[in-house]
């Protein structure tokens, strides 16, 4: 029995000791928490005392302003009765809810008519910031709305930022005076002039290309150019046999001549070599007969003297602006398209130089270009590669429905024309006629308010759609710019 009592005492003693220790720990924790609360209360009390002392030491103006001679020099308390309304109504009472703008980096355009602030735009800055993913611009507006002045302002005001401007074809000669004023070069082409361009020139060689790469690039560009010229004149696509005739003629001319020119290629197409390796069945002359006579128009027809010899001018990529003035050529859509094909090919080597810097390429009177598949394909290729080469293309035309006149509905040409609009995330729409509102709103995804706004826009006022954001701006011109850019001076009789 005694042994059992001892065993029980041994078992109970540790349990009682554990309970005692737990109680001690709880009392110690409660004591620490109480001390922490007391310290926090003391700090809060000291802070409140300091704030009260600061308020007592501060002198405040009375609610009704200063008394005596200083009366009315400080405003009194503003009292306004409470008002409750819907958010749709109150939104019109707070102008500070307008669009915040694109920032201050870039080219000054004018005034944002909604916010009243300055409107600044630069496609390269917006691309670097991720606001847009393509630097191309589409500009549309009826005659007299001010779209030409805006285009000229955008590219001339970009020159101080180190940008350059290329106009591969100026059908009306509007950019000639601008090019000369900024220290650039305007190359005037036309019958009776001494200026001649050889579209088969090697052109400006981009840095970083080996001799083999450069030879391959030049050969490919020459083949594409002659094929595009033939398609433009023939108004159809070339057959495989015609492509072969062009390729063989061009290869032989380049091999036999240091400076190949178009008359040599035309002669080789019409009278090809009869060597068995190049013409095994003796039908090469017949295969290229239509192409040869189509290209003969450039060397012996209505375009004789423009592209049928060595170039009389050199392309200088260091100039701030180069424009090809085609206003001396007879007003003919096909001729203008052929001219722009040759002139753009002459510029193409400099355009496709990744180290050429940031450049504007202006396609004025673009409806002429889009009516020819070969030109449209070249434009589409340039637009898709704009980011790689640092190019911002600007397409200028009168109305967006011009895109609907390109090819048949569902055709490849219509798809290419629509892709130009899709690859331009900056769309600027100046005043449009009422019958153009529906197609314009559909093409750009305009709201009902924006659609109704277009017919009422004044001169120099435009709706800017930059991705999903909208701005209504007033373009502002310096007097010197106005006298240089104004295209209505001749029609109105004002001195230019």
Can you characterise this structure?
Residues 19-29 have a biased composition (Basic residues). Residues 37-54 have a biased composition (Basic and acidic residues). There is one protein chain. It is built from 19 helices and 11 strands. The chain has helices at 2-57, 87-90, 123-129, 147-156, 176-181, 211-234, 240-256, 262-270, 284-287, 289-300, 333-351, 366-370, 373-384, 386-389, 412-422, 437-444, 448-453, 479-485, 489-492, and strands at 107-112, 118-121, 137-140, 164-170, 185-188, 321-325, 359-363, 391-397, 426-429, 461-466, 469-475. An 11-stranded mixed β-sheet has the order 2-1-11-10-9-3-8-7-4-6-5. Helix 6 runs antiparallel to helix 11 (333-351). It is elongated, with a radius of gyration of 37 Å. The chain starts with a helix and ends with a helix. The model is unreliable at 490-496 (pLDDT under 50).
Q: Measure the end-to-end span.
A: 132 Å
**Are there runs of 5+ residues with pLDDT below 50, and where?**
490-496
Q: What does the main sheet amount to?
A: 11 strands, mixed
- What is the string of SSEs from the N terminus onward? HHEEHEHEHEHHHHHEHEHHHEHEHHEEHH
CATH superfamily of the largest domain: P-loop containing nucleotide triphosphate hydrolases
Instruction: Give the second-level CATH assignment, the architecture of the largest domain.
Output: 3-Layer(aba) Sandwich
Number of strands: 11
The fold-level CATH name of the largest domain is Rossmann fold
């Amino acid at each position: 029995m005694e042994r059992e009592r001892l065993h029980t005492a041994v078992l109970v003693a540790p349990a009682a000791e554990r309970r005692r220790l737990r109680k001690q720990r709880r009392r110690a924790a409660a004591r620490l928490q109480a001390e922490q609360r007391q310290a926090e209360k003391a700090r809060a009390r000291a802070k409140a005392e300091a704030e009260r002392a600061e308020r007592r030491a501060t002198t405040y103006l009375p609610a009704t302003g200063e008394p005596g001679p200083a009366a009315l020099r400080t405003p009194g308390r503003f009292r306004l009765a409470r008002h409750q309304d819907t958010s749709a109504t109150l939104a019109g009472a707070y102008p500070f809810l307008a669009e915040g703008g694109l920032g201050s980096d870039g080219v000054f355009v004018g005034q944002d008519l909604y916010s009243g602030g300055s409107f600044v735009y630069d496609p390269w800055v917006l691309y670097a910031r991720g606001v847009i993913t393509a630097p191309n611009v589409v500009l549309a507006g009826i005659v007299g709305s001010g779209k030409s002045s805006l285009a000229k302002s955008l590219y001339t005001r970009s020159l101080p930022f180190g940008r350059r401007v290329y106009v591969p074809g100026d059908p009306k000669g509007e950019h000639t005076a601008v090019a000369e004023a900024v220290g650039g070069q305007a190359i005037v082409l036309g019958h009776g002039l001494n200026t001649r361009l050889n579209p088969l020139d090697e052109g400006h060689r981009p840095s970083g290309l080996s001799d083999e790469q450069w030879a391959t690039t030049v050969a490919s560009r020459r083949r594409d150019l002659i094929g595009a010229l033939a398609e433009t004149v023939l108004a159809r696509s070339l057959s495989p046999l015609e492509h072969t005739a062009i390729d063989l003629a061009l290869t032989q001319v380049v091999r036999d001549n240091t400076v190949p020119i178009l008359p040599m290629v035309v002669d080789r197409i019409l009278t090809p070599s009869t060597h068995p390796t190049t013409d095994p069945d003796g039908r090469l002359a017949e295969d290229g007969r239509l192409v040869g006579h189509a290209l003969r128009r450039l060397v012996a027809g209505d375009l004789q003297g423009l592209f049928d010899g060595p170039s009389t001018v050199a392309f200088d990529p260091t100039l701030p602006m180069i424009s090809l003035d085609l206003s001396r050529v007879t007003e003919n859509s096909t001729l203008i398209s052929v001219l722009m094909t040759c002139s753009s090919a002459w510029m193409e080597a400099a355009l496709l130089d990744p180290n050429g810097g940031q450049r504007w390429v202006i396609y004025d009177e673009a409806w002429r270009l889009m009516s020819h598949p070969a030109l449209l394909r070249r434009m589409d290729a340039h637009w898709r590669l704009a980011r790689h080469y640092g190019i911002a293309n600007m397409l200028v035309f009168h109305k967006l429905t011009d895109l609907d006149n390109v090819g048949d509905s569902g055709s490849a040409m219509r798809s290419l024309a629509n892709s130009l609009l899709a690859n331009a995330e900056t769309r600027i729409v100046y005043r449009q006629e009422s019958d153009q509102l529906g197609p314009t709103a559909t093409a750009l995804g305009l709201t009902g308010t924006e659609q109704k706004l277009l017919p009422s826009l004044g001169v120099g006022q435009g709706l800017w759609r930059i991705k999903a954001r909208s701005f209504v701006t007033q373009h502002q011109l310096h007097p010197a710019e106005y006298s240089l850019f104004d295209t209505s001076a001749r029609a109105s009789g004002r001195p230019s």
